[in-house]
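[[Per-residue structure]]
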Amino acid sequence: MAITRMTVIKAASDADYRKGQDIFLIDKRIRNFETDINTLTHTPMITATVLDADGTEHETQVSIDEEESQIIGSLCSCPDFYQAQGICCHCVAILLKYISRRHIQASFPAKNQNRISQNLIETYIQQSSGIHYTAESSDVKGQIELEPILHKQYKKLSVDFKVGTHKKYVIKDLLEFARLVREHELFQYGKNLKFFHEPEAFTPESRKLLSFIMQRIEEYEYHFRYVQDSTYRFQTIKPLRELPLSPTAIDTFLNLMLGRTLQFRLADQTQTIRVLDCDPLLTLSLKSEDNSTYKLTIDNCLILSGASTFWILKDKTLYRCSENFRKDMQPYLTELNRQKTQEMILSEKQLRPFYGSVLKRLQAHTDFQTNGIDLSGYEPPEAHFSIYLDHPSDQIFSCSAYAQYNEETFSLATPISPEDGFRDATMENKVLTAIQSYFHPVMASEDEKAPEVDGDFIIDHDDTASFLFLEQGLPHFYELAEVFISSNMKRVRILSAPKAAVGVSVSHGLLTLDIRSDHLPYDELAGILNSYRRRQKYYKLKSGEFLKLENNSLSVLSELADGLRLSEKDIANGQMTVPLYRASYIDAVLTSHNSDMQSHRDRYFKSLIRDMKSVADSDYEVPDAMKPILRDYQKTGYRWLCTIAHLGFGGILADDMGLGKTLQIITLLEHTRLTAAERTDGGHPVSLIICPSSLVYNWDSEIEHFAPALKTLLITGTAQERQDLLTHAADYDVLITSYDMLKRDITYYDALHFQYQIIDEAQYIKNHRTQAARSVCSIHSVTRFALTGTPIENRLSELWSIFEYLMPGYLYPYAHFRSELEQPIVESKDPIATTRLQQLVRPFIMRRLKTDVLKELPDKLEHAVYAQMTEEQQKLYVANAVQLQKELESQNDSMFKASKIQILAELTKLRQLCCDPALIYKNYHGGSAKLDTCIQLIQNARAGGHKILLFSQFTSMLDIIEHRLKLEHILYYRLDGSTKSEQRTRLVNAFNENAIPVFLISLKAGGTGLNLTGADIVIHYDPWWNAAAQNQATDRAHRIGQTHTVTVYKLIARHTIEEKILELQENKKALSDQILSEEGVTASQLTKEELLQILQ
């Protein structure tokens, strides 16, 4: 056994193998090439400096096992090394050089120990080999030609090829030829033809044919392997001499041959033909056989039909016919070809309709010879059309149409018969098609209730067809015919919707909305808006007239009616009152449609909107102690908080992770303390902060650090101790508790009232049905704020839950929110619903991204690092995946829903197998490729002086990693759900300050609320369904205070569910920044079809 090219091909992606082969063929791009023996494994180790095309150098190393024909390990300094799907192109290049040298040196005696002579031998062999290849390549570069031969057998077309320069050789197997081209291999066809199969070797014209061959071979191989019946899938593909041509391939191939000559083989005879882009001139001859019979003859020609092009072979020329030629000539020629004849016989009676319908179209494209026959008498008379319209009742329109030829008149409802040879079928069909676009024929009916209509066509109880006929059909009828309209018909009109005006004013803490229009019928306005909402183009008024719904003022009224949930009674009255917090939404709607309708805002309304929009210019002074600490964007955030509180609203501070949301809230609380101290009424506002238990001490520490004058009280201890602490709440400025403690103590808060209620990591209440969500909503507070870097992690209902806490009812009852906003946005990408939600929520959300406000923050580089599972690991994974796939395929929808929990457990099992099968199987000793990759990453990073955060969702996986780190003598810290709150802070400070290189963190326990800027590498050991949660964890390091570029590695087991998770994360970004932030995906949301897809 030995390392072969096939070993290298299997170890690299197709793209990297091709790039590596290109590098290998240009020997100057591989320098300092050396082979040595690895002292640990006693196997060959290859090192070299490899140059890219631009001269960039990469240090490359590969260890191999010749006996097992395996690549043991590889290393390269190129940026693509960790992203490559296998070994990178530079590793490919030095392996190919190694194989080449080994092959050359095999013919020399091993006993030659003289180093000088050995070097000379290697140099001259290499030089000789290089000259040979270069000469071979340069001799033929741009000279190799491909000569196609087109075959027609029965109804099938195929093509084979010859290759060469002056002398051409038949390509006996196009599949093998394609492989030679893909691998740029050297091959000898005969005594005078040997060359590397590179595109540059071929002439420019032949390169086009080469691309055609490669594409068709790829399609052929795919069809053979995956499309044919499964019983043939695993058979070896036989050599392919002739390439079969589909209709599409016929067009592609012949278009490549335009302007060139081509060998064409038909019935064992080969001829040279030209391929031209023009219509052939065919001779069409009409002769009289006797007084009552005529013979119509056309030149002999061969038809080749492509997918979209009509080709005709005549007199050794193949013509690409124009579209007009195809339309007029193809039916005729195809019919003759089907009947295997060049002529047809026409009777005197047949000639008249044939001349008007067919022959006149044929003679436009042929050399038409009448042979003395006078056809003037066969010219059809010009048709004159008349259309009669009536409106006999409210729901019915009727129509009759006639064609008049001189003195004869025909109803268009009567089909043309062969005897009516002079009727103009083309024009009659044109008029009839126009009518039947709106009307349908009157059918005989025995139903006594069926309407009696004086006409051949009818619109019966179909308002949409009636409107379209009046709007589009009627004007078209006037272009085609003389139109006669009854008196009833004249009374039906289409009216343009009159413009409306909206006024808005502030009174007694409410908004008053006035809708005015001089011509809009208020009693029908609700129906009009309902029709507009359903995207209808019209509304039928009680008068029977149609109102055209394309006036943009209606879009404003419809949006306000939906967004404010106005009742039909409100709309009919023309005046209504709504809560003050709807001000920004109303202003946004009116502003975005400013040119569509008139609006009036009173001065109080304008002042309210101005306060909300001009936060940066507001008069809220930053406390003196905080001025040197806060950045400009944080000062803006503080003033926004003050403005929202002053106006009596609530809001979400949704800045990107690491931008200092905590500091902005502390500034607000300090401002409140200072303002209260100036009051003379002795009032003392108390605020409540609710956060995850892991952050309680962090909040206390931050307040102590930035605003030590604020008196804080931590609600911790036993139930009795917490109750006692709450009795002293009025003595403090800020109370801090956790979601868990609040749920237990909620009854103790009934008598307490807070100035500010602040919930941190607000995604904790993303499910509005949980006790945590119900608890925070029951607290008595004047103003409520929510802090979160991810207001939407998985679904829009999470945003609704936060707003229900901030301002109950603002986003409507959940059932209405779900049906009118969530489902249209998520399922249908409804732009109107998306815009409405944006206009509703954006005034109450302050969100800044790091890329927008921290220009000095270092880059964040993200890489997916792929690990090929060990053989034993792969077997276990495939067995479990196949079992789950079969189980899913056997389930109907109801069974699938019932077994969802079990399926999620099986998915988790697959993810654990990707991490390490030892998580599931106690006695497993088959190794984990991902664990080995992870340890290698850590070792390389540690050697480079980096510090690493390693996240996993499985604490048991952290146990395994911890054990390996001990074996490797690598120091580390660990933080998971069992870590006490006080200890978390000490661990974070220690990691940021000392030289311990690794911090193992459970994603759930440490993904939020930690500042770990001491790290510059983040490793996600296992991908989580929710991209937002992963990003949140990453931003423990990529945040304010970070001075180094942060590199993020996502470890992925190749060809597993983990790759599909990455794809799903990308595909599920439907709400990405459209509303707020990235949308994630949870396993519980996956459909049966999506689950089957990720298991494939």
Notes: The first helix runs from residue 5 to 11. Residues 106-138, 226-235, 1076-1081 have pLDDT under 50 and may be disordered. Residues 614-853 form a domain with the Rossmann fold fold (CATH 3.40.50.10810).
